[in-house]
Design brief:
Layout: H1 4-33, H2 37-63, H3 83-110, H4 114-144, H5 148-158
Helix pairs in contact: 1-2, 1-3, 2-5, 3-4
């Protein structure tokens, strides 16, 4: 069974992942409304990934004999200014999530909970990828600047992303 400190930290992470999903859906809707269907798609896929993360952590908490607590999910904003501002927020948010994941790893080590430490390693590695992806898109958007044709080209590129469940066994597949 999980100790209360880890149970609380993991529950907080489920909430953070659900908020992430909610925020990325809001960003997707903003992009859709602005006519950037490719960016909307990329962010929608990101929302699906975050929901999968939340469910994976939720199931881990249950597997460890604890009933997770359900916390309020803050409403995200609905206007993001432009693509550069939006992806600056994406990167900042992913950096926050990284810090939360790292706190869980540190706590698991301190509690000598090797199962949780092993479990959270996947998320540590995932966050390296998440931050790198957000940083790359932000760099591209910055390079493009006000060049609408190039922004539309990037929008088309972003539309190619598809959701692949990182935990198919957990989804019953």
């Amino acid at each position: 069974m999980l100790k209360n400190t880890l149970s609380n930290a993991l529950t907080k992470q489920v909430n953070a992942e659900l908020y992430s999903s909610y925020m990325y859906l809001a960003m997707s809707a903003y992009c859709d409304r602005e006519g950037f269907k490719g960016f909307a798609n990329w962010l929608h896929v990101q929302a699906q990934e975050e929901m999968a993360h939340a469910m994976h952590i939720y199931e881990y908490i249950l597997d460890r004999g604890v009933c997770p607590q359900f916390l309020d999910i803050k409403a995200p904003k609905s206007d993001f200014g432009n693509m550069q501002l939006l992806f600056e927020q994406v990167l900042s948010h992913e950096q926050l999530i990284t810090s939360l994941i790292n706190e869980i790893a540190t706590l698991a080590l301190g509690e000598s909970d090797h199962a949780t430490y092993g479990f959270i390693q996947w998320y540590i590695n995932e966050q390296v990828e998440e931050e790198a992806s957000a940083e790359l898109i932000l760099q591209k958007v910055k390079h493009i600047g006000e060049n609408t044709a190039m922004l539309l080209t990037l929008d088309t590129e972003m539309g190619a992303r598809v959701f692949v469940n990182p935990f198919p066994a957990a989804a019953g597949a």
